[in-house]
Specification:
Blueprint lengths: L17 H7 L4 E2 L6 E3 L2 E9 L5 H23 L2 E9 L4 E9 L2 H20 L14 H8 E2 L14 H22 L1
Antiparallel strand pairs: 1-2, 2-3, 3-5, 3-6, 4-5
C-alpha cells in the first residue's frame, strides 16, 4: 500500500537512521473483505456516524459509564479485540468507533453481531442517525455506509499476536514466575 524503499527513503527526522525505520516497518495493506488497514494479523476498524440532534449526545454520555464498565465483558466474548475507543467528536455531531482486532474483517463483524449486539445497540440506539440495530438486516449496509479507512495506523509491537496468544503467554509467564518463586523457598 505504501511505497517504502530503505535505499531511497528519507526519515522525518535526520536523527533517525533509516535502518531503524526499516526494522519496524509493518507494510499495511487494505482488508481482504472490507474497509480498513491490516498489518500481519492485526486490523483497524473505524466508523464515523452522525449523531441525532439535539438529543443524541446526551443519551450517549448518559450511557457511556455503563458501556465502559461492561466493555471488558463484551469484548472478551469476541476474543479478537486488542483495544476499542468510542467517542463523541465534532462537538457531538458524530460518534467515532475505533477498534484494533485480530483476524479478517468479515469474521470480526460476524462475531461482533453474534456476541456483542446488546452492548453495541446500547451505545448506538437513539444516538446514531438511522442506526438499525445489529440484529437488523440493515446493520451491514449501515456499517458500510459509515466505515472509513485510517490513513495512518500502526498495528502494535507484535501484529501477529492475537489477544488469545497474549493471554496465553502471560499465563505461561505467571506460572513460570510462580515455579521460580517456589523453587527459591
Amino acid at each position: 500500500m505504501y511505497d517504502f524503499d530503505p535505499s531511497t527513503y528519507q526519515p522525518i527526522s535526520p536523527d533517525v537512521p533509516v535502518e531503524e525505520i526499516a526494522k519496524n516497518f509493518q507494510s499495511p495493506r487494505t482488508q481482504t473483505d472490507g474497509v480498513g488497514l491490516r498489518a500481519v494479523n492485526r486490523s483497524e476498524f473505524t466508523l464515523l456516524a452522525p449523531v441525532i440532534q439535539p438529543t443524541g449526545p446526551a443519551v450517549f454520555l448518559e450511557r457511556a459509564e455503563k458501556a465502559c464498565i461492561e466493555a471488558p465483558y463484551w469484548e472478551s466474548r469476541l476474543g479478537t479485540v486488542h483495544d476499542l475507543r468510542v467517542a463523541l467528536v465534532n462537538d457531538g455531531r458524530h460518534v467515532l468507533f475505533c477498534a484494533t482486532y485480530s483476524d479478517e474483517f468479515k469474521p470480526y463483524v460476524i462475531d461482533v453481531i453474534r456476541f456483542a449486539t446488546p452492548w453495541i445497540d446500547y451505545m448506538f440506539t437513539d444516538v446514531a442517525v438511522g442506526y438499525p440495530g445489529l440484529a437488523s438486516d440493515d446493520a451491514i449496509p449501515y456499517i458500510a455506509k459509515y466505515q472509513v479507512q485510517a490513513n495512518v495506523w500502526y498495528g502494535g509491537l507484535n501484529p501477529e499476536a492475537s489477544p488469545k496468544n497474549i493471554a496465553k503467554s502471560l499465563a505461561v509467564a505467571a506460572a513460570f514466575d510462580n515455579l521460580l518463586d517456589a523453587a527459591q523457598d
